[in-house]
């Protein structure tokens, strides 16, 4: 993911699929008009043997996958140390081994990890860190081209097609997740 971002930033590639919109990325990306899914970013921890999740206040070391925009101002929280980790899977392995207290991630990544490790249970802790919308990102050079306009028209057509619904259904969250992605128009319920 970091390499793909750098390739678009350096104009070695034209399109980045799935970046969340951030002010930093806006400097080198032009985003599609429409997003194609919504993610809530959470802190994830393994479920202890006794089944009782520790309080969020017990977290001091958080793994953040390299290149991810997670929100939540984690770097401003007192007593928190952030560890940049190459991949979300590596971060989840580190939290399971006790080397990290939590991992900042979205449920799709954790659901994929669960599919490969069905004996492991990871659940979100506390409140969502942020709600992120995923877009198509275009290099600034590609942004003004006819190809980009054609791509964007085809992309927006896909979003109204039944295939899009099938893609979302294949990427639904794991059963324990409370309010994760469903459709582009999804509204998250108010957090209590």
What does this entry show, briefly?
The protein is of the alpha/beta class and 192 residues long. It is built from 7 helices and 7 strands, in the order αβαββββαβαβααα.
Give your account of this protein's structure.
The protein contains seven helices and seven strands. The chain has helices at residues 2-9, 23-26, 88-96, 107-116, 140-143, 146-159, 162-170, and strands at 15-20, 29-31, 37-46, 61-65, 81-85, 102-106, 122-139.
**Head-to-tail CA distance between termini:** 34 Å
**What about the largest sheet?**
7 strands, mixed
| SSE pattern, N- to C-terminal | HEHEEEEHEHEHHH
Task: Determine Rg (CA atoms, Å).
Answer: 18 Å
List the main descriptive attributes of the protein structure presented here.
192 residues; alpha/beta; 7-stranded mixed β-sheet; globular
Topology:
Elements: H1 2-9, E1 15-20, H2 23-26, E2 29-31, E3 37-46, E4 61-65, E5 81-85, H3 88-96, E6 102-106, H4 107-116, E7 122-139, H5 140-143, H6 146-159, H7 162-170
Parallel strand pairs: 4-5, 4-6
Antiparallel strand pairs: 1-7, 2-7, 3-6, 3-7
């Amino acid at each position: 993911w970091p390499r793909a971002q750098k390739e678009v930033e350096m104009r070695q590639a034209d399109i980045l699929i799935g970046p969340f919109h951030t002010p930093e990325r806006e400097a080198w990306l032009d985003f599609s008009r429409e997003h194609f899914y919504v993610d809530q970013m959470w802190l994830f921890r393994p479920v202890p043997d006794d089944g009782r999740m520790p309080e969020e206040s017990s977290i001091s070391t958080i793994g953040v996958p390299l290149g991810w925009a997670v929100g939540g101002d984690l770097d401003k929280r007192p007593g928190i140390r952030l560890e940049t980790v190459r991949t979300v899977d590596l971060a989840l392995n580190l939290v399971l081994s006790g080397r990290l207290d939590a991992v900042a991630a979205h449920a799709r990544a954790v659901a994929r990890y669960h599919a490969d490790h069905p004996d492991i249970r990871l659940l979100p802790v506390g409140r969502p860190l942020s709600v992120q919308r995923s877009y198509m990102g275009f290099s600034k050079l590609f942004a003004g081209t006819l190809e980009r306009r054609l791509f964007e028209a085809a992309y927006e057509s896909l979003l109204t097609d039944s295939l899009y619904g099938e893609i979302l259904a294949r990427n639904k969250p794991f059963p324990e997740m409370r309010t994760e992605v469903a459709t582009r128009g999804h509204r998250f319920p108010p957090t209590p």
